[in-house]
Amino acid sequence: MTQTISINLGGLLFHIDDEAYEILKTYLQAIEKQFINETEKKDIIQDIEARIAELFAERINRNKDLVSVDDVNAVISIMGEPHDFIEEDENQKSTSGTSYKRTSASKRMYRNPDDRLLGGVCGGLGAYFQTDSWIFRVIFILLFFLFFGGIIYLILWIAIPEATTSAQKLEMRGEPITVENIKNAVKKEYENVKQKMNIK
């Protein structure tokens, strides 16, 4: 008889069978050990848990509301094993070639809070299309005078969600959302905040 456990992961409630729970718990503990000496450990773990919760939410529906071993294993294969990103770090130090593990990445439109003058719409478009955000700013200024650029901008501001987590910022740029990439994104954000504080 399979037991069901209720867990809160990334702010979402999931029902998970006991075997899948043990695999997930072991996986999260292994990740936590890798970041034990990182100053950004709490934020990295929160973003990883939020991404795992998103992946679980995609895999369950009305017909299937229980997270199984297959679901946990599928999520782990997407996120990467802890030993995978240790070897990736070592490979990147020794060579400047491609990284150790890559998974397919999906792109999604977000407003970019790190590159904004107003709502981050142009920054998000720039990140999504991998071009400079000033190009979109010029386009919207021209549209403002010629057509209804201000209204279009406001509609996009309302319709496009803001990228708040590291996983969403990676998805905005079309980068794989793995444990390693989340860690690097959080560390980069910390460095940017430190630099801004030093400037002031």
Report what the structure shows.
The protein is mainly alpha-helical and 200 residues long. The chain has two domains: 4-104 and 175-199, no CATH class; 121-162, no CATH class. 61% of the residues lie in helices and 7% in strands. It has a three-stranded mixed beta sheet. Helix 1 (18-34) runs parallel beside helix 3, helix 2 (41-59) crosses helix 3 (69-79) and helix 8 packs across helix 9. The radius of gyration is 20 Å and the shape is globular. Mean pLDDT is 78; it is low at 87-104.
| Helicity, as a percent range | 55-70%
Q: How many strands in all?
A: 3
User: Would you tell me the structural class of the helices and strands?
Assistant: mainly alpha
- How much is the radius of gyration in Å? 20 Å
Elements, N to C (H/E):
EEHHEHHHHHHH
Q: Mean pLDDT, nearest integer?
A: 78
> Total helix count?
9
User: What gross morphology would you assign?
Assistant: globular
Question: Strand share of the residues?
Answer: 5-15%
Please give the largest β-sheet.
3 strands, mixed
